[in-house]
Write the structure tokens for this entry.
Amino acid sequence: MKVLTYHSIGMPPPEAKLKTLYVKPSVFKRQINTLRFLGYRFLSVDHLLKGNAPRKSVLLTFDDAYLDFWENAFPLLKEYKIPAVVFVPAMLVGKFNQWDHQRVNVKKLIMDWQQLRELTKAGIEIGSHSLTHPYLSKIPREKAKREIEDSKKLLEDKLGVQIRAFCYPYGDYNHEVRDLVMQAGYLMAFTTKAGSFEQSENLFEIRRITVFGNDFILKLLLKILL
Ligand SMILES: [Zn+2]
């Protein structure tokens, strides 16, 4: 089983750097339709917790909770009743990518609380992506602890649902950070290490496959198959 990582679903603005992290809406739709056509199952966090993850299945994850998820991915997922996980930097809800807007040369809007509530109602799982998207292994332990614990509390207070999944910002973690995530009461955590779900060391170091905007459909299928 493969967990797929998406960032932006939309057209990259001309000035944007790291354009490969944008998947065009038409390409996204083709990817989903191809996987459906091939008989792939779309899993939810519940499947993973129950250990029910057949080989020919995928879990869709979306990092950073950008507004373009709401505009370009959610309508399709809703139509097909496909589950997904959206990882939210909890202090930046309704704001923008303050952690890397200079590096990528674009201010990308992040969904607001109302939109996140709509997502949870429609069966989209909300996960924590920390409070402010720092490198968790490079800040003092107490600060990392707050990023991990307080983001869970804030999301739970605002959305009224249990926050079960965490995603390490930049994929940056070490054993100490991982243990903080476990102790905070999360049930699983996602990395940027490549590989299948089965290859993951444990539920707090889940491997994923990043989908790039320039992955043509055959390349994506190979990434999912291999
Ligand atoms: Zn991120």
The beta strands are 2-6, 8-9, 22-23, 41-42, 57-63, 85-88, 125-128, 165-167, 188-194, 206-210. The domain at 2-225 is CATH 3.20.20.370 (TIM Barrel). The pocket of zinc ion is lined by residues 63-64, 129, 133, 169 (CB under 6 Å). The mean pLDDT is 96.
